[in-house]
Amino acid sequence: MPVSGTTVFRNDAVSKVTGRAKYTDDLKFYGMAHAVVVYTGYVRAEHLRVDVDAASASPGVLGVFTAADIPGQICFGQINRDYAMLAQERILCEGDVIALVVAETRAAALAAAPLVKEQADELPPVTDPFEALKPDAPILRPGSAGNTNRINHGRVRKGDAEAVLQGCDLVLDEEFSTQFIEHAYMEPEAGIAVPRPDGVIEIYGSMQHPYSTRRFVSAMLGEPLANVEVYMTPMGGGFGGKDDTAAIVCARAALAARKLNRPVKLTYDRSWSMKESYKRHPYHLHYRVGFDKRGKLRGADIDMVSDSGAYTSVTPWVNWRSTAQCCGPYTADAVRMDIVAATTNNVFTGAMRGFGAPQVNFAVEQLMDMAAEKLGLSPVEIRRINMVKQGDATITGQVLDNHTVSLEAVMDRLLAESSYREKYPSCSRGKGEGDELYGIGFSISYRGASLGAEGMDYCSSIINCQMDGSILLEAAIHENGQGAESVQMMILSEELGVPLSRIRYKRPSTSNIPDGGTTVATRGTIMGGGAVAIAARNLKKLIAETLAEELGGDPSEVVFENDTVSVPLGKSFSWEEAMKAMHLHRVYPYAFGTFQAPHVSWDEELGQGDAYFTFVYSAQAAELTVSRKTGKIKLLSLTAVHDIGRAINRAMVLGQMYGGIAQAVGQALSEDLAVREGRIGNLNLDKYKIPRAKDLPEIKGIIVENPDPTSPTGAKGIGEPALELMAPAIANAVYNATGLRFHNLPITITPEDLK
Hints:
alpha+beta; Aldehyde Oxidoreductase, domain 4; 5-stranded mixed beta sheet; 32 strands
């Protein structure tokens, strides 16, 4: 009963399109109060004093809470505990919350919030990461590790890069920069805390990692983890953005709920979400890359600086991925790469779809086109010369021999699907008659699947079969809106040979299943789906060992297909009969499965080792015109080809491609968080320009499948690879249209530029 590789409706499709799905803000509990946050008026200050008397006396107010009311831990973080749930003594950015106002109604809480008063000694903000890293810069977080504004330092050391560059026929010396990017999920953060009579506090919220939320709430309340039970509600988008801030929102609701002993809801509006939530890291990238006259990349000398903003979040992990992929999908004889992240008084930065790769790809893929032009090669030729192939070693020394390295085939498929070879000679390059300048460009990449050497990587799943043949499925990878639940159900259906209609996905709480890690890093299918497949195989083994004799065969002969359990030349049970037989044997048809990612090793000092256990190979192309009169860029077509290992649900794979590409178009052409002196000037989506449907042309998505032997299902992933390539493809197309090379994002062209 094969279902993988087909298209089926998502298990949550009907509830969402009919409006019946209950998001966090839709939930109501008896006696529920409402909380709102109060933000500081400063960007940087110390000696904070907060006066809540007037707000506390406001009609309908039940309580106003500050850092002094927190019984346990005040500061949190995925790596460093530096993000204050409520500001205590020091203000580090305009998104710092100084108080929580709780009232009978949201309106009453909003009316009281302006009555909270603060006083502090204002200090000049440090908003330039280069200034923050200077030896004489003020330390923004005294007492931090090393008492420095430098959060981390990543590196790659392979050979003598400077010596190799000296011997190259061509050396390019170029700088690039990328911007703050807002996640712009449809649903802002929200959390509800509900105290139970047994002492447990239930948390309901929109989050990517319920177990982080549980840890935050437990530490903040000073209570055991077992006293905190977290339930994920349907999520209106995350893209990496609902980890730290989402957990803190739930923790604030939990503080108020414990203090008042009643349910409390805290729902953000868009301006709060944009002010406080973390963004994509802005990067400054300086590349010196050397080629021989045949076009071979010989050496690279690279410096990067990323702006972490006020807090650490997952900056070291983001920067680590940039380290591992700093030369793109290319081999080189020698590489010296350093990346440093700085603390500033800007909004803080953290996980966002792509996670350190889009910034690097923007530079590397333009450099390849630039080098090709100077060496008299085509963009295709120079990539073919330098790309990783089967058995090659990456710049970190990882030998790619445990899976199909399909990058060349993927690129060739892109060239064919986009008609790149036929269209490339027609590029205007700033010349020609008429208003419209035409260009086409492409880019390629490889992306390490899942977490890799940056963290512990595992996931688990539970399968619980009922006597009537229905099946409950749980997994520790959580639905973010991407369709993970449906994919896991399809995997289980195929493994057991039963129809999808038998399976119900039971969204677990943190008390039901072990922590399987956060839903990030394109790990939903490879890790969550892998755990489901292993649990299903454990279940089949249990059933086969229990029923084989009754079926008239050996356990190794038992077959699960077409909604039956059978032995060839023996008996056959329907699935319902098999489940009843299991119960008659007093064996419960239940299984637990865990997928632990294959071991990888990494040398932090040298930036050498096996960064990931497998890779996704990708190529994307953009075709566009640029108006001489207005500078407006009009996208004509976008093409994407990705080797994802194995497609479980083809429609959802294509949906991930389309969504990722749409976000990449925003990164390339329109999105820019207007941060000036630490303050965000466009705190709503009417001023922050994300692409609309009419801004996007036809998008062609092509799936390439080479099942991965390290994945239990053969699948790898598509969520992040879909986003990380289109910005450089557009930049290359813009150059081929105008003859202008853009080193900074977003790309904006004026008529004066084209004169």
